[in-house]
Amino acid sequence: MGKTAADGQAEDMNDRLQGKRFRRSNDNRFLAGVCGGIADYFGIDANIVRLVFVVLTVLGFSGVFVYVLALLIMPAEGERHSLLEQIIRNFQGKPGQN
């Protein structure tokens, strides 16, 4: 059977999504690169993401909690595992892997 146009579009979308992942930014960082990584993922300015975190914190929603959670979950650029994965591996006594 031959490929249809929909199959080709699905493969193109899958290829684009494979390379696009949440990563903490090494270049666009103020504290830990979380806002820069989120901004890179969505293609927006990092200052907008930082402003959203500040507004969430001021309005009572814990922007700090969300930031720390993202810091633990998002791996840095060039690393395979997140900080949380590394902590869990160390707790289990397994060697760290990057």
UniProtKB/TrEMBL annotation:
Membrane topology field: Single-pass membrane protein
Main localization, broad class: membrane
TM regions (residue ranges): 51-74
Keyword line: Cell membrane, Membrane, Transmembrane, Transmembrane helix
Tagged with keyword Membrane: yes
GO cellular component: plasma membrane
Transport listed as a keyword: no
Tree of life domain: Bacteria
Phage shock protein PspC N-terminal domain ranges (all copies): 20-77
Subcellular location: Cell membrane
Pfam families from the UniProt entry: PspC
Ranges where the record places region Disordered: 1-20
Name of the molecule in the record: Phage shock protein PspC (Stress-responsive transcriptional regulator)
Gene source species: Nocardiopsis flavescens
